[in-house]
Every structure is written in structure tokens, then in C-alpha cells.
Design goal:
The complex is a heterodimer of chains A (about 140) and B (about 240). Helices cover about 45% and strands about 10% of the residues of chain A. Chain A contains six helices and four strands. The mean pLDDT of chain A is about 80. Chain B is an alpha+beta fold and about 240 residues long. Helices cover about 25% and strands about 15% of the residues of chain B. In chain B, strand 8 and strand 9 form a beta hairpin. The model of chain B has no long low-confidence stretch (mean pLDDT about 90). The chains are: A alpha+beta (about 140), B alpha+beta (about 240). At the A-B interface, helix 2 and helix 3 of A face strand 8 of B.
Amino acid sequence: MKRHQFRQDALIEVLHKAQELFGFLDSDLMHYVARSLKLPTSRVYGVATFYHFFNLKPKGAHTCVVCMGTACYVKGADQVVAALEQCTGVRAGETTPDGKVSLATARCIGACGIAPAVVYDGVVTARQSPADALANVKGWLGHAA
Amino acid sequence: MAAKTLTIDGQLVSAEENQTLLEAARDAQIPIPTLCHLDGVMDVGACRMCLVEIVGTPKLLPACVTKVQEGLEVRTNSERLQRYRRLLLELLFAERNHVCAVCVSNGHCELQDLATQHGMDHVRYAYQAPNLGVDLSHRLYGLDHNRCVLCTRCVRVCWYIEGAGTLNLAGRGTGSMIITDLNQPWADSDTCTACGKCVQACPTGALFYKGATVAEMERDRQKLEYIVTAREKKQWNV
């Protein structure tokens, strides 16, 4: 915040940094940011919820992002998501209660040539079938147990 | 200040340089329907009810945030505009639960009045019927999200007039909601001054005085305008 001279219009940059440091934005953190930048807390909350990038809840130890772009969708990404949702017991965009796996979907990750693409912990993987995805994520879940 | 001359609905109108089309039209007794506009509060052009046609421009422009220009030819009530306004109202009604018969603002509601004026007698879209809950935690006021049209009048009076900034908009698209502070119950908000300006500003029955029952919720808009005028013109510096 000091780097941005406590400028109010640097709110998004500050929230970016805060999320990078803490992994997610909890209410104490947002309260602190609002106080420091002299902004209403409601404004900070509004901005944090408007952008998909910001998480208000802690993310899981592992993340699995399924691309739902047109090409991946045609190639069966919806079945991958359905299989993963059934396996983990949470819906896309949520984290398993034990905090092991976060499941998410993306509009298009720009890897249409390898559709359907799934990103496991930041690693883009090509041509995933529901079975492949389950094998990968089950490893994470099994690791938990 | 330079005066600008323009035509609104075939009538020659002269307006001051920094006036908006809406102000110029109102000065000339030409009605333009509005929903998110509130006298004395900054305009955001959110509701699109005040869209007008300008000859030579293919786009429709919101009258509340468009400044007058020399020689403009404005149409405020064409067949096309009426169609769009009805459409907007239908979408607003379909988005949340606007059931006039059980609403505190029945008979004093701007959304209801607009629907009547525009002859909106049915809704062609599927009602979303969301279950958004009601915040009754505040000791004086209630907030029913199901009746909210997200005009952000309350947000603007809270921030620009009261200066508290308790209310704001969270989320995006259909998931948008009016929140207090960090989306906590209104009673737990440490910034709310309980001034009640938001309740005065609300066009529908979303914000109401506790204890008001069906059709009892009347608002005194002049109160807000009075405060703002007095402040801007420094009438209180005695």
C-alpha cells in the first residue's frame, strides 16, 4: 500500500497483492485495506466480489480448472466437470470441505488445439477424458485420506 | 454561461451549457421517464429508462447523463423508445419478486407507476423468482433484496450525501446485491449512521421503515433535495 502511496484508486492493485500474500481475502484483511486507503468497507467488498480473480474463501491445496471454452465444450468438457463434481462432492467454483481440492471452470484458456484442456495446479494438460481427470484428482483426494 | 439551443420533440428549447438533456427537457415541461435518477444525487445512467433518440446518432442515449449540445434534435417518445421502455420494465419485473399486492410501497412505488404509465400489462419473460432474503437486523429499517431493482440510489445517497458509504453493490450481473459493509447484517455495520436517507431514496419497497405494512410506506423525496440544495447553495452558513 505504501508503494502505491495509499492512493484510493490503487485498490485493485492492493487487493491483488493482498491475495498473493494471503491466498484469499478474509474480512479482517478487507477491513484493514479499507481503513488504510480510507475507503468505505462496502466499496472494498464490492470490488472484491465483482472480479472473479479475488477469492473470499481459502483455496484448496490443489486446484483443478476445467476449460469450458467452445472447443473444449464441444469435445466434452461438460462431462469432465460433471464427473469431477460427482467425485469431489462440490460444485465448480467451490472447495472440498477438507480444503484439499478447489474445482473451477474457465471461459477459455486459449488452448483450443488440445481440447478438452484441464489445468491441474497450473499445469495445462491436453485431451482430458472424464476418466483421466478423475485419476488425477483422486490422487489428491486419496493423498488427503 | 453560454446558452445552447436544441429541439426536443419538435419544440425549440434553450438550455445552459452544462445542463443534461433530462434537465433541459424537464425545464421545458417535457416528461422523460426515469428510475435511477434522483434529484440532487449524482446520475449514473444505470436504468436506461430515460433513453432518448438523437437524430443522426444510431445509438440511444441516456438523457440523465448526456449534456446538451447546440442544434441537437432529440426525440423522447417515439414508438421504438416506448417499446424498449416496456421491455426494460418487463425485465425488471421478471428479475426479482415484485408482487405489488403484498408490498409496503404499493401505490407509492416508482416501478409500479412506470409500469402503469407505459401500459406494461404482462411480462413476456420467465420470472426468476429468486429467494434473496430480507435483512431486518437494523433497529429502524428493513432491506428486502427481493424488491430491489439495483438502481443504486441508496448507494449514492449514502456515499455522496451522507458520506458514510455503508451501502454498496457486490457481485456482478444477475448475482449483484446491495450490501452493507462487508456483506454483514445491517445491524452489525459500524459505518451506518441510521440517517434514513437510503430509505427516502428507494424507488420501490426494497428499503422500508420497520413496522410499515402493505401500502403504508410513503417517502418524502423533497427532504433529500432540501438537504442537498441547502448544502450546495450554502444556505445554512449562518
